[in-house]
Design goal:
The protein is mostly helical and 400 residues long. It has one domain: Up-down Bundle (Growth Hormone, Chain: A), CATH 1.20.1250.20. It is 82% helix and 0% strand. It is built from 14 helices and no strands. Helix 3 packs antiparallel against helix 4 and helix 10 packs across helix 12. The longest helix has 33 residues.
Length: 400
């Protein structure tokens, strides 16, 4: 089917909706986890599997869909992923057990990962590094608007209609996004640029040998890891301290506002300050805010304001760093944007998933364990950045 031409702004909005399906499905579900745990009568660790297992599936999907989109094109791979996503949501909606709920979320995550990695690759097809960082920030601002409302919506839906209601909403939006994609999304990768599997594999192994790519991937993995650990454990912390799922969702808005503001700064100041300076500023601010969050918890300030206020600043810092880290990593292999985007996402997600499952065994009576873990991770990221700051972020000869 021939698609109708979209304006650049409309294309960004559509790619944002496709990309948002994954993060929103996670964010809207997080306040529901304690309620699903209570409904099925399972442990915190078992309930946490409904978060960590989909993250692993998401990581695997990111790794696979990027190279597939290099070979078959962006449009068919995104459409296939959206079909899988909708199928997983149907299974999760009617799940009779925690195992089936986990399976449904795994299938949905495997599907929605196509949109995340291939949308980034599509932008790599269209824009050079600086402009890609600018457009990624614009895309993310559109996406964050929906993502900001998701936890509050999830909490209110669950407490009003039951925890399955979140899957009804996700299913309706997933079908709408799939139909819009089928109707309007163009193919951004020209037929002559599609790569044979052997060349894609060579590009992937070449990226793994680049210190610049590994450094960028690990820095972005820290951002994902601390965020996943925070949103996976804090609902339990707040519940143990007497706060509801709806209140968690409302406080979560502080993170989204911070991230939105950071993205806005990237969209406005990338050309003025440069990609490298914005990455460095984001990593440093993130570490300072995480340290402040841990010190507040250490002082016994466990009210949600003191828990989320540092995360508003962390969100801002991540909004500064993340689009620039992504654009820099994908730009290292311009002819294999799908493979680069997929490998980047795989590293981010797999590390985040393992951290969530590891931290699921930590106490949730207060905020000390989770804030201490986040402070340690961000301090290590800042130190690694300072040690590697002299290395230029540029393609290594022979990558493509």
């Amino acid at each position: 089917m021939k698609t109708r031409a979209l304006s650049e702004r409309a294309l960004i909005v559509l790619l944002a909706a496709i990309t948002a399906s994954g993060p929103v499905s996670l964010a809207i579900y997080m306040p529901v986890v304690p309620l699903a745990r209570a409904a099925f009568g399972v442990s915190v660790a078992a309930a946490s599997t409904t978060v960590s297992a989909p993250l692993i599936a998401f990581a695997i999907g990111l790794f696979l869909y990027g190279p597939l989109s290099d070979h078959y094109g962006r449009r068919p791979v995104i459409l296939a992923g959206l079909g899988i996503y909708v199928s997983g949501l149907l299974l999760a909606l009617f799940a009779p057990s925690i195992g089936m709920l986990t399976a449904g979320r795994v299938i949905a995550a495997l599907g929605t990962s196509a949109g995340v990695t291939v949308a980034r690759a599509a932008m790599g097809d269209l824009y050079a590094r600086e402009k890609m960082a600018h457009k990624l920030a614009t895309l993310t601002m559109v996406m964050v608007t929906a993502n900001a409302l998701a936890p509050a919506a999830g909490g209110m839906l669950a407490e009003t209609f039951g925890w399955q209601a979140v899957f009804v909403v996700l299913l309706a939006s997933g079908i709408a996004i799939a139909l819009s994609t089928w109707r309007w999304l163009p193919e951004t990768r020209r037929a002559g640029e599609r790569q044979a599997p052997r060349h894609i594999l060579e590009a992937t192994t070449g990226l793994l040998r680049q210190r610049a790519f590994i450094g960028l991937a690990l820095q972005s993995a820290v951002i994902y890891t601390i965020f996943f650990v925070f949103v996976a454990l804090v609902p339990y912390v707040l519940r143990n301290l007497g706060w509801s799922a709806t209140e968690y969702g409302l406080w979560y808005l502080m993170i989204s506002v911070g991230y939105f503001t950071g993205n806005w700064c990237v969209s406005r100041y990338t050309y003025r300050f440069g990609v490298a300076r914005l990455i460095g500023a984001g990593i440093a601010i993130q570490a300072l805010a995480a340290l402040a969050g841990w010190l507040l918890a250490l002082a016994g300030l466990w009210h949600p304001f003191w828990l989320f206020a540092p995360w508003g600043v962390i969100g801002f810092a991540q909004g500064l760093a993340m689009p620039n880290l992504t654009a820099s990593a994908v730009a290292l292999a311009p002819r294999h944007a799908g493979a680069a985007s997929g490998l980047l996402g795989f590293i981010q997600q797999i590390i985040g998933a393992l951290a969530v499952q590891l931290m699921a065994a930590s106490p949730t009576a207060n905020a000390l364990p989770v804030t201490g873990f986040i402070a340690a991770c961000t301090a290590a990221a800042w130190l690694a950045h300072k040690l590697g700051q002299s290395r230029a972020v540029s393609p290594t000869p022979g990558t493509d």
